[in-house]
Amino acid sequence: MTDFVAACRRAIGAQHVLTEEADTAPYLLDRRGRFTGAACAVVRPASTEEVAAIVRLCNEFDVPIVPQGGNTGLVLGGIPDRSGKAVVLSLQRMECIRAIDTVNNTMTVEAGCILQRVQQTAADARRLFPLSLAAEGSCTIGGNLSSNAGGTAVLRYGNSRELCLGLEVVTPQGEIWNGLRGLRKDNTGYDLRDLYIGAEGTLGIITAAVLKLFPQPKAQRTALAALHSPADALRLLTLVQRQCDATLTGFELMSGFCLELVVRHFPQTPLPFNTPYPYYALLELSDHESEMHAAELLDAAIDQAHEQGIVHDAVTAHSLAQSQQLWALRERIPLAQAAEGRNVKHDISLPISRIADFIDATGSELQQSYPGLRPVIFGHLGDGNLHYNIAQPASESDTWLLPHQDAITRIVHDSVHRFDGSISAEHGLGSMKRDEILRYKSPVEMKLMRTIKQALDPRNLMNPGKVV
């Protein structure tokens, strides 16, 4: 291993090959502080050619590679195991924005670019890059693509996969595939791009991407609606989609308990209603006509929902500051839940039409097995993605969850499967769900995935122990 580290230092410079514990520690601890891995080194190449050189050295010395972006993942996808055999390959130094084409509406960026910087660069060019999620100030484009990140605007613009036209990838053999084509139509064989997006670094290392840009909307309008049930939320979603069509950018569902936690732990973020309700929906329109048009569309939809008994109260933001206050209620849910104590997280997706029935059925089953459990239900209802998290009973300390978390997860995941859903919507599988997925994917599907992995990475050097 000493020879391998020395060769890496010659390839990319000694200062970019980290081996001291104090230097490597931030790269080995997962975001939630649950697991610390070990590595022979952390390498920080600055170019695609340097990434390829490191991968070739890993082949020569038989060293596994764990690619890492901003280390914001939630399923241990970018953390090595504890053997210390792997090298962590951090792409944080690859942060160049290579090109912006405002006629083709594309931006070519390197994998280490922080998402927020990409958003701002697009805005500076009077364009929109719509991917938006809680970790946007620290997550990287490479990580977003490797996990096919979703976020709050999937309803209108799609996941990361839909926002990417082309990739540059270093293969497990250290070759460079330049697929940085800004084409919306390219029907010339297998779509290699889609193999790498969502593969969590198990098939190759994404080093750059061509991203789609969009015209900036002329107006955005946000509203918070109070509801009695998830079924009412689905009725509201259908109504607003019918009334507002493609202007509906976001539709977030939040249980009353979620916002109770936010108000408890962030008292500077008050609920805008005098009476608490069981559920809330946060809606956002992005309009390309005018502020007045957006307001008329949203107000008309909310009024109709009132008349039909779907919405029982609602507030609409009339300024950017008010919109940010409403979004703060949604964005602070994970922080408030963490402040409340330990929790069991589930990132799931379901057919939108079945979400209300899933919530009712799963909640009943959990209460039968563990009376007093407190589901923390929120997520992107418009695209079927729920964060169905579980807090301990109010009478128990947060240590109560630890011996029960596997059984709780089994109840939730089995219910997801019965309702034709997925146990990972936007976080990926990593190592946390690698074995769990075997319960729900068919043997044929797993065989196909393993065949692809074996064909592209026969030595199993790319992020071993993740996904398959």
TrEMBL record:
Keyword Flavoprotein belongs to the record: yes
GO molecular function annotations of the record: catalytic activity; FAD binding
Coiled coil: none
InterPro entries: FAD-bd_oxidored_4_C, FAD-bd_PCMH, FAD-bd_PCMH-like_sf, FAD-bd_PCMH_sub1, FAD-bd_PCMH_sub2, FAD-linked_Oxase-like_C, FAD-oxidored/transferase_4, Oxid_FAD_bind_N
A Pfam family hit: FAD_binding_4
Cofactor list: FAD
Gene3D superfamilies documented for this protein: 3.30.465.10, 3.30.70.2190, 3.30.70.2740, Uridine Diphospho-n-acetylenolpyruvylglucosamine Reductase, domain 2, Vanillyl-alcohol Oxidase, Chain A, domain 4
Record key words, sorted: FAD, Flavoprotein
Listed GO biological process terms: respiratory electron transport chain
FAD-binding PCMH-type domain location: 35-216
UniProt keyword Chaperone present: no
PROSITE patterns: FAD_PCMH
Similarity-based family: Belongs to the FAD-binding oxidoreductase/transferase type 4 family.
Protein's UniProt name: D-2-hydroxyacid dehydrogenase
Organism: Oxalicibacterium solurbis
